[in-house]
């Protein structure tokens, strides 16, 4: 079924959105005589006929707020509405009134929908890295009125969600090799992008001995990932550079970390996840669109830090 999300300013004159008057609906709730705080929601069924509508407040006095505050209030409002609607199994399509801030609304909707899990009651998880087809969202979003800002917001959110996914994978699913394969897949088909995956022999040739010393205790081959994006008219112009730490599991090596919380050390590649995902958004959107396109280089050394028989020992030179 289809649902509608309408963010509303309780202090502004009510305007109909797809046949819905949010202030009128709010007046029907038990708290209808009070101005709701930002993120307060109310859901109405068969309103309009055959649809579910969730109204969500952006807070009193929205119009007088600074632009960045407004943007955050829209995110909070739309995000709260999505969290409420995603509890309903029958809702598969949601139309969002994004008129207050299309970019913020798109970002909020897709971030709020995200929930990482590898557990399923049947079939493969949409996050299973062995899937050959891209995962489909539980809910498909669309704005009441299409806009370039909404589309940009979707890319922002999808890139952030990629970073979240990469950082959440257990270490056996996001080895250095698996990480680089996933990156190739994500950047596939994007113009002006070159993906280069270097091996340990290349790193040794370049004298990257500190990096290689971390690899001694693991059987997983280390990788050095480069993403080169040439979006500027002058392909030789100095690029913007992003560097992210890519220790896909950091046990501490010989200096073993405490066992409690050890599984969280899969997150030591969060820097790599962040810069790769930022690079993906830049390449997709040709950022910064309002100034000029840019050249970009993203680099990340990828390895595990494990206490194997050949692991680097404290004091080794």
From TrEMBL:
Domain Cytosol aminopeptidase: 161-316
Keywords from the UniProt entry: Aminopeptidase, Hydrolase, Protease
GO terms classed as biological process: proteolysis
Family matches, as InterPro entries: Leucine_aapep/pepB, Macro_dom-like, Peptidase_M17_C, Peptidase_M17_N
SUPFAM superfamilies linked: Macro domain-like, Zn-dependent exopeptidases
Highest taxon above the source species: Eukaryota
PANTHER family: CYTOSOL AMINOPEPTIDASE, LEUCINE AMINOPEPTIDASE-RELATED
Family the entry assigns: Belongs to the peptidase M17 family.
Name of the protein in question: Cytosol aminopeptidase family, catalytic domain-containing protein
Species: Ephemerocybe angulata
């Amino acid at each position: 079924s289809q649902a509608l999300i309408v963010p509303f300013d309780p202090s502004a004159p009510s305007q109909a959105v797809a046949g819905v008057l949010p202030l009128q609906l709010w007046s029907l709730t038990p708290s209808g005589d009070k101005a709701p705080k930002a993120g307060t929601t109310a859901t109405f069924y068969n309103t309009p006929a055959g649809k579910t509508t969730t109204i969500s407040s952006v807070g009193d006095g929205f119009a007088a707020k600074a632009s960045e505050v407004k943007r955050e209030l829209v995110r909070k409002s739309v995000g709260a509405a999505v969290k409420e609607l995603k509890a309903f199994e029958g809702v598969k399509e949601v139309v969002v009134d994004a008129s207050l801030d299309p970019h913020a609304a798109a970002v909020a909707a897709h971030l709020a929908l995200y929930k990482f899990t590898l557990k399923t009651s049947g079939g493969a998880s949409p996050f299973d890295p062995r899937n050959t087809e891209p995962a489909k969202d539980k809910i498909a979003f669309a704005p009441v009125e299409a806009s370039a800002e909404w589309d940009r917001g979707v890319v922002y959110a999808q890139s952030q969600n990629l970073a979240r996914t990469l950082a959440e994978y257990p270490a056996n699913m996001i080895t250095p090799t698996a990480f680089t394969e996933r990156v190739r897949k994500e950047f596939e088909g994007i113009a002006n992008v070159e993906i280069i995956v270097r091996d340990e022999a290349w790193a040794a040739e370049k004298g990257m001995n500190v990096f290689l010393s971390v690899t001694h205790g693991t059987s997983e081959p280390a990788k050095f990932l480069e993403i080169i994006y040439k979006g500027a008219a002058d392909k030789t112009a100095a690029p913007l550079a992003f560097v992210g730490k890519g220790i896909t599991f950091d046990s501490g090596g010989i200096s073993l970390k405490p066992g409690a919380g050890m599984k969280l050390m899969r997150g030591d590649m969060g820097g790599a996840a962040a810069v790769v995902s930022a690079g993906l958004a830049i390449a997709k959107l040709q950022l910064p669109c309002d100034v000029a396109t840019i050249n970009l280089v993203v680099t990340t050394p990828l390895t595990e830090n494990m206490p194997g028989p050949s692991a680097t020992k404290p004091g080794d030179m």
